[in-house]
Every structure is written in structure tokens, then in C-alpha cells.
Amino acid sequence: MKYKGYLFLFVFLVISCTSKPLTSKEIALKCQEYHDAKGRWYDKVVALELESKSIFSDNNTERIHLKIDNKANTFEYHNLFREVHLEFRQDTCIAHNDNSSCEDYEWASKFYPYIWGMHAKFFDPGIQVKEAYKEALINKVPVYVIHIDYEKENWDFYIDKGSFYLAGFKFVKKDDSGGEIVYNEGSKNVNGTIMPVKRTWYDLDMKLLGTDILK
User: Fold this and answer.
1) Reduced to 3 states, what is the DSSP secondary structure of residue 161?
2) 189, 156, 188: which is closest to 172 by C-alpha?
């Protein structure tokens, strides 16, 4: 019996040591599954309430309500501090008051659905996760660093090696006009999707730009 025990241990160690490393696509898929186990992001309606502070608003506290309906391809942005309320319905923008400018806030209709649905974007049509990836420590947490080249930016995604939680990301603009680094903290279940509770934004020199907190 003792020899069988040693044999089992030996076989286990051999299998463990020779197990095939994950590919970058497998890492991305596990991250997607962690945040949205049923893979239903594009069928969901997600309502979010954020408390945002940034140097771009003189560190005033902005209350932002978002409604993302991926199936209907609609998005609502309501910034209580700025008194801006907009709806984007496919190719149509509706401004609800005089402070709301479709032209000035068109960026919001692309920015927020991407940032809050980032876990589901790795396999969008035309998107290619690079085969090569790195390993690093982010805030003392071991992460995989996977990479995607977009048309105007290069992105790195920091994925926790233990849980596959999306611990943060970095993007650098290809025209050398800058970029940002973002660290995620905490988690909250929002309509079946695991969302980060806090995002902290920095420039590429690690100067604090702001924070977003999910309420």
C-alpha cells in the first residue's frame, strides 16, 4: 500500500509539472467566464450608478447613472452633477435638456459600454488577442498580461492568475499622445455580471487622474 501511495504521488507530480500552459485566448476566456459565467452580456440590460471624481472635473463628485441595453443597442447617460441626460438609440442621440449635447458627449456612448463590458470584448468580431503574453505583479498580485492591438491604441489587460478577475488594464495611444493605467478593486454582482467596485485611473507616469466607485 505504501508503494502505491508513492506511485500515485509520483504520477501526480509528473502530471502537474508537465501540464500544458494556458494560451492567451484561454486566459481571456477564463476571465470572461469569471465575470459573466453564462456569457449573457450581449443579452442583458445593466443599470449602474457611479460616483466619479477626476482632475478633469476639478475633483468634484459626479453622480452618474448608466443604462446599457446591449440587445436593443441603446445606452443612457445621466450625469446629475453636470445636469446632462442623453439617450443613444443605435445611430440616434436624444438630448433631454439644454445642458446635454449629443456632439460633446458622443464619447460616452462608446466609453462606458466598453469599460463596463470589457470582460466580454476579448472575442468581439475583428478582435485578436495576441498569442504572446506576460506574467507580472500588479499591486502585489500575480497576473497574466494579455495584449490587444486596436486601430488607434495598444491595450494590456491584467488578469488575476488565481481567480481570473480583471484586475486592471493599460492603454497607450499609437499617435504618442498618451495613455492611461487603471486598477480595479472589489467586486459586485450586477444582473449576473461581476463588476469591479472601484477603478483608480492614472496617467502613464502614475499621476492620479481619478476614481470611479460603483454604488
Assistant:
1) coil
2) 156
Residue 154: beta bridge partners?
149, 172
The answer as to whether 184 is a domain residue is yes
Give pLDDT tens digits along the chain (215 positions).
444 454 444 444 444 445 789 999 999 999 999 999 999 999 999 999 999 999 999 999 999 999 999 999 999 999 999 999 999 998 899 999 999 999 999 999 999 999 999 999 999 999 999 999 999 999 999 999 999 999 999 999 999 999 999 999 999 999 999 999 999 999 999 999 999 999 999 999 999 999 999 99
Which of 184, 153, 150 shows the shortest CA–CA distance to 35? 184
The CATH number of the domain holding residue 125 is 2.50.20
Provide the domain count of the chain. 1
Q: Can you give the C-alpha Rg of the chain in angstroms?
A: 20
The answer to whether 25 and 159 are in contact (CB under 8 A) is no
Residue 17 lies in a domain: no
Which structural domain, as residue segments, surrounds residue 187?
A: 22-214
Q: Are 68 and 56 in contact (CB under 8 A)?
A: no
